[in-house]
Design brief:
Mean pLDDT: 86
Largest sheet: 8 strands, antiparallel, barrel
Low-confidence stretches: 247-253
CATH class of the largest domain: Mainly Beta
Helix content: under 10%
CATH topology of the largest domain: Lipocalin
Order of helices and strands: EEEEEEEEEEEEEHEEEEEEE
CATH architecture of the largest domain: Beta Barrel
Number of domains: 2
CATH superfamily of the largest domain: Lipid/polyisoprenoid-binding, YceI-like
């Protein structure tokens, strides 16, 4: 008795926030329920035998409507409903994409005095994304290369920025560039990926994973095509030989050893950015 089904993306991931609505042939709503964590739809509401319209919606996806037949047992099976991303492809089209620094940000957050946070950003950076694959798959072969000017750090305080550029931290005279080069890509959920790569910082190279969310693709005002991403990771300063650690009181460090990195990236399709 009731309704059964699954709601998935094109690449097979569950759409947990999907909403399923059933209406009878007069247009009257007879059932409304949400998908569970695994994308399954289960409702035990008693339904009279006959045809119904099933509408599946989810934020960011195009709605899907289909006809379901409720049997004499009062049960309807809608099978697997596949939702496509609203207004475009599930993932960016394959090819070269260039990072747009004017519409992107590279930020880091460190704990200060154990009670608050200091936010900083790098103002000069660039990079390239090579999207591999097609509708049949193969996105795992995509690649990312990025370069950040270490001396472009900006925390909104000139004295603090000078200290961060010194040998206590970034040592920008000896290590002017921070680089990241991906080595692989693993799907982690709907529109989410784990980017595996090598980060070179302060003369030390470490394996670092980025937790990446794909936000969508669309046209821009200059005739180009843009893709947007958000990525996060956490770094330990000590892993990159930045061991400055002034203790101010009761064992509390002035600056925490863990950095939370947040990236908001726009990339433009093509090998170079258009003139704006």
């Amino acid at each position: 008795m009731g309704l059964r089904g699954q709601v998935r993306t094109r690449d097979g991931w569950a759409v947990q926030h999907a909403v399923v609505t059933m209406t009878d042939m007069t247009g009257a709503q007879v059932l409304r329920t949400g998908a569970e964590e695994d994308g399954s739809v289960r409702s035990d509401v008693a339904l009279a035998p006959g045809p119904y319209t099933v509408i599946v919606t989810a934020v960011g996806y195009a709605p899907v409507a289909s006809t379901a037949l409720v049997t004499r047992s009062g049960r309807a099976e809608v099978g697997t409903v596949v939702l496509a991303r609203q207004g475009g492809a599930e993932l960016p089209p394959p090819g070269a994409w260039s990072l747009d620094p004017a519409h992107s940000s590279v930020g880091a957050v460190a704990q200060h005095l154990g009670i608050s946070s200091v936010h900083g950003r790098f103002k000069e950076f660039g990079g390239r994304i090579e999207i591999a694959g097609d509708a049949a798959g193969g996105y795992e072969e995509s690649r990312v290369e990025a370069v950040i000017a270490a001396a472009s750090i900006d925390t909104g305080n000139a004295l603090r920025d000078k200290h961060l550029k010194s040998p206590d931290f970034l040592d920008v005279e000896r290590f002017p560039e921070i680089t990241y080069s991906s080595t692989g890509l693993t799907p982690a959920g709907p529109d989410r990926w784990t980017v595996h790569g090598r980060l070179s910082l302060h003369g030390v190279v470490r394996e670092v994973d980025l937790h990446l969310s794909y936000l969508g693709t669309g046209p821009d005002p200059w005739g180009g095509e843009r893709a947007a991403f958000h990525a996060t990771t956490e770094l330990s300063r000590e892993d990159f030989a930045m061991n400055y650690n002034q203790v101010v009181r009761a064992g509390v460090a002035a600056i925490g050893t863990t950095l939370r990195v947040e990236l908001d990236i726009q990339a433009v399709r093509g090998e170079s950015l258009p003139a704006v």
